[in-house]
Amino acid sequence: MALLQPSRIRVLAVGKVKRPWLADGIAFYAKRLPGLELMELKDSTQAKEAAAVRGARKPGERLVLLTEEGQKLNSVEFAQLLGEWTSERVALVIGGADGHLEQLRQEADALLSLSALTFPHELALLLLMEQLYRASTILQGSPYHRS
């Protein structure tokens, strides 16, 4: 199984992280994933957010939208999926309060869910960062993940 390459992953998140304790948590995991790019997109209407995602997407980059209706994976399955994509560039996108525009959903290469629950974008970003770090440790065989 291939190792996670954070430099091939970008996280595009609609909205600003306002709560310091969440920003600290996000920074904590970002330090452990050198090369991972975090990009903040302005929150607006679904159409404008979708346009921002399209504008930020790099050519050939796999577009993965995070949504509660997406495929539900456990941490090991998520790590395995990222391991399968290791030779590709991947953009993981957290939408705004109203979710993703239907057209953008149809353009996406994959829809994934962090949970069936709904989270504020800031908390979803922290959860995603932790899961990316966890995936990295799973693929490395580190004892961080205990199943």
Protein model, in words:
With 147 residues, this protein is of the alpha/beta class. The chain has 5 helices and 5 strands; from the N terminus they run βαβαβαβαβα. Strands 2-1-4-3-5 form a 5-stranded parallel β-sheet, sandwiched between helices. It is globular, with a radius of gyration of 14 Å.
Give the H and E element order. EHEHEHEHEH
Sheet-strand content, in percent, reads: 15-25%
Count of helical segments? 5
> What structural category arises from helix and sheet content?
alpha/beta
Total strand segments: 5
Q: Spans with pLDDT under 50 lasting ≥5 residues?
A: none
**Biggest β-sheet strands, sense, barrel:** 5 strands, parallel
Mean pLDDT score, rounded? 94
The percent range for helix content is 40-55%
Q: If strands are numbered along the chain, what order do they take across the biggest sheet? A: 2-1-4-3-5
- Specify Rg, calculated over alpha carbons: 14 Å
Overall body shape: globular
Give the termini separation: 18 Å
